[in-house]
Every structure is written in C-alpha cells, then in structure tokens.
Amino acid sequence: MRLHLKHEWNVSTAEARKIQEELREKWVGEDRLGEIRTVAGLDAAFVLTGSQGLKEMRSRWQALREANRAIAAVVVYRYPEMEELERTYAEVRLEFPYVPGFLSFREIPALLAALSKLQTIPDLLFCDGQGYAHPRRMGLA
Q1: pLDDT at 52
Q2: Where are the chain's structural domains?
Q3: Each residue of 10-68: pLDDT tens digit?
Q4: 108 with 22: CB under 8 angstroms?
C-alpha cells in the first residue's frame, strides 16, 4: 500500500496542534467512498522493552507514559463476506511522548508502518480513535 505523508510525526506539541488545526480545515463530512469491497481494522499497542520492561508498573497510565515501542496490526477483509484477505503488523520505536489530545502522533507512525506492508488497498479503515469527536476535531479516526 502506498502512503502519502505530508508532515513529520516527531514534532513538538505546539507543532502537533498546528498540524491538527490545518488538517481539520481539510475534513469533509460527507460520503465520497463509492462501493466498498474491502475493509481493514487496525490498532496499536504500546510496550516497554529491554531491561526497563521488567520493572513493575504502578498503573496503566504509567505504563502508557513509559512505553518505548509501538506494535500496530492491520487485518484486511473482503466486504460484505468478511473473508480475511491479508494481515500484517509492524513494531516501531516511539518518538512522541504520551500527551492527552495528541495520541495520533504516537500511534500513527506504527499504523503507517503496518499499512505500508499491505498488498491489498482497503477501501475503508476502522480504527480506535476520536476523529471528529476529538477536542480539536482532528483525532486519529
């Protein structure tokens, strides 16, 4: 799958906010998809690897803040049959810190790495993200 990136992901939170605001202006709230023949579900998880991974975490939020790797997975299905066509994953080093409201800058590099491995281009992506419900109207979804 070929991806077109227009900005960097490892930026300051001020730059991330500016990117979100610029992208929000390009959002279209109408269906322009046409016929949907393939769908994909994707998500990312965060892990702490290396010797630091052995330490005991006090809370889920501490684990999220201290994670140093992201693992993303994507599964593509033929629609509406829901027959699995392809699956892949990617693991990347985390560059962006855990900052509420900017989770997409932490997750998307791993998701893009997994998507770039696909041979099948999905017509529609399902992801766990706020999208338009985001406080700045530009979350992951």
Answers
A1: 57
A2: 34-133
A3: 899 999 889 888 877 877 778 888 999 999 999 999 887 765 555 666 666 676 667 78
A4: no
User: If you classify domain 34-133 with CATH, what class do you get?
Assistant: alpha beta
How many CB atoms are closer than 10 A to CB 36? 11
Cα→Cα distances 47→16, 44, 127, Å: 23, 10, 19
Task: Give the model's pLDDT for residue 58.
Answer: 65
Query: Which residues are bridge partners to 43 per DSSP?
Result: 73
Spatial CA neighbour of 97 closest among 28, 27, 37, 9: 9
CA angle (94 as vertex; 134, 21 as ends), nearest 5: 30
104-133 exposure pattern, b = at least 16 Cβ within 10 A, e = fewer = bbbbbbbbbbbbeebeeebeeeebebbeee
Beta bridge partners of 46: 70
Residue 123's Cβ-side half-sphere holds a number of Cα atoms within 13 Å equal to 13
